[in-house]
Amino acid sequence: MKEVEAGDVGVRYLPAGQRLARYVTGYHRFAAPVSAVRDIHDAFFPSVATIRVTLPPSPSWSLKLGSRCFDPVPPVALTGPTSYAGYVACGGGVLVGVGLRPFGWAQFFGGDVSRYANRVIALDDIDPGAQMLCDALERDDAFDAVFDQWLEARLQRRPPADPRIEVLCEILRDPATTRIETVAEVLDMSPRGLAAMTRFNFGFTPKLLLRRTRFLRAVTIVLTDPEGGPAALEAAGYWDRSHFLRDSHLFLGCSVRDFARRRGPHNQVAIAARVQAFGTPV
Known about the structure:
- By secondary structure, the chain is of the alpha+beta class.
- It contains eleven helices and eleven strands.
- The relative contact order is 0.16.
């Protein structure tokens, strides 16, 4: 896939290798000219857990998630699953990363991912091979191949992950899924058991996950095709604009109009780059 550019910034998304497609959302690379001050302000949408590596000689950068600000973000960082947009301040450089599906988190690392929800930690806090990943990425421009190799080495380190996690991912991505009770029935679980499972493996309650998925599906259309916004809101299941605005304040911390002013070029280009690579904006 070619890099999508706007002015001096570039974004590239690449799919994972065949063995890893069920575990990760794909790989990404963000680039911008280096400056002496943090004059670039941008944003990430709420998402699954993500590994991000800042490649030398990129300067340090900060990430604000809700009321928390992580400054500086570790050079090899794990951002847990997020229910808030992440607001970035940086002085350019190159950032490469990989999104971890919940099934991937369970297989590669395991444990209660809610401990890292809306948080950033150094990856070596949970994996001693973090520096090895960083070193390999510095040596090789083919960042997707480096991530493939590093992650494949971790596939067999743990027992197979609970297959219900992968099934639940598919259910949550289905626009027709609107009721938690239906999800619990499909998985033959009680609502309480489902909530415990999603907090442990996804970081949040099933209700919040459904709201996040619905909101991201709608907001990317509102941002890229304003005329199609009303139809997108209706298709996503929003009763009216105020219903959508409440979710906007929950997940973005502001209205969509304010977010459009606050986000930078990378967020805008990333939507186009994801559509080019994967066929969908989120």
